Amino acid sequence: MIAPRTARRAGLVASVLTLLLATGCFGGAAAEENSDGGRLRVAMLLPPRSGLSPFSDDAFKLSRLGIAEALTTLDEGGAPQPALATSWSRVDESTWRFVLREGVRFHDGTTLDAARVVDVLARAAAARPKPRILDGVELTAETDSASAVVVRTAVPDPLLPQRLSSPQLSILAAAAYQGDSIDPVQAGTGPFVLTRLEGTQSATLDRYDGYWGGRAVAPGIDVSFVPDGTARTAALRTGTADIVEAVPASQVAVLDKELYRTVAMPRTNTLYLNTRTGAFADPAIRAAARAAVQREPLVSGVYEKHADAAVGLLGPAVPWAAQRPARTERSAGPITGEKIVLATFSDRPELPEVAATLAQQLEAAGFVVEQVVREYAHIEADALAGRFDAFILSRATMLDSGDPVAYLASDFTCHGGFNISQLCDPAVDRAITAAAAEADLTKRRTLILAAEKAVLETEAAVPLLHERVVQGNARGVVDALFDPRERLLVSLKTRRTG
């Protein structure tokens, strides 16, 4: 059974902070001072799982820290904007042409050109597993000139410019790619160069004075990966961290209000049910689990009202989702002591508490529940392989492209690369495919909500709540970024003034 938050071990927090200070992760020898306050000290939630490979979820660290860039980026409304590509045009329904920015140099001194972009896109398309932004997408690229690339998809893809904004399609220098491994050290194009990665513990970044977009104010960034949320919060309180990701809801009350900001996120806490094996292969038993879920104890208890109860997969950070059609709920079958394994990960500190609360609710409905909690790096493979009956995941729903289609395709189609529910339903696949093909934004959103309805009517996923993420900023930190898509954290202007 998961221990309540009141019993968390203060000794662990103290030892983590002692380690951070002793190793210089939040200062020390690396803390160069200047008139703008010196190097930024950042405490990140999740450790790298794949050595900061852009073809994994680590890509978002490369983006958030200003290390690497993709061909495009997104504005607040989700429209594509120039990044390493300055313009693009649609040649025909399945073909796009992208013109590259001139004068861009990688951190190792080599120059960005069309051949480099083509090589990276080819590697991404061939990667196994694919970057999730390419789930269900057959993509090829070729040079059109030294400064232009033609990208083709097997079927029309009106979202391609947004798709190519994904940090998982960041363009790195040729030296980064060694066989099947990718090493981003001194290989990006962003305002900060990654000079050192210490496994899952820390990273060191220096300002890259040759950045095409101008010179950053901060001379560098010292990053620590701190899965323990109480330790991250303590680092903020004691002034040993400048920017802190994901302050746990349980810790907000101990912070001065000027030290944090709450951001409504397109992130949903969802209970995924294994539709292929075990008790939940029966849709009526999945419906019984859905009926047993009570969201209010999660929102008011675990998240202390820093969350919103979920009606669907898309939450209040996606305003148009409120227009969703009504759905039909399947009748719940009788529960006769079905044994289930309910799993989640500990990196987000609320999730083990969510699991404990849900276990009680499911047991009250008649299930026999075994709980499994591990760090994410040690549980993801088993979750994707379908080794649990149920899995609780905090999932960004518009992370990759500013559009939910990539998330729906990845999580709920037959060939989706992140299909924890093991769902393979032809009606769901058709609905998601129809949404993906629609270029008109109004019609596309209607089709997306129809696809959400199709997913929920399978009872494969039970949306629990929509998170409001709390980001900590120490006193004197200026122009840190609060990005609902979790792509950006520091900018050219981000600095500390004391």
TrEMBL record:
UniProt KW keywords: Signal
GO biological process: peptide transport
Positions in coiled-coil regions: none
Extent of the signal sequence: 1-31
Protein name: ABC transporter substrate-binding protein
Residue span, Solute-binding protein family domain: 80-416
GO cellular component: ATP-binding cassette (ABC) transporter complex; periplasmic space
Entry-linked Pfam families: SBP_bac_5
GO molecular function: peptide transmembrane transporter activity
InterPro entries in UniProt: Peptide/Ni-bd (IPR030678), SBP_5 (IPR039424), SBP_5_dom (IPR000914)
Organism: Micromonospora deserti
